[in-house]
User: What shape does this take?
Amino acid sequence: MTDQILSDEGFRWFLTILTGGLAGSWAVYDTISLIRIRGKDRTPVNGDRRFGYVIGIVIGVIGVWGCLRFHGVV
Assistant: This one.
């Protein structure tokens, strides 16, 4: 009998779902936000928002890409 709650493979999948889910939802949320401010004026505040949303999308894509690479999909 072991003291483990999850097997090693189960733990890997748990972390992948947690990390990939957070990164994927982050990328989708920032994409929707970027689309919403698309037609706004070109003030510095909106420029900072656009930049932040693009950085959020990049971080989300890197997170999902890392999960896919971890499991050997890409």
Summary: The helical segments are 8-36, 44-70. The first helix runs from residue 8 to 36. Residues 24-70 form one domain.
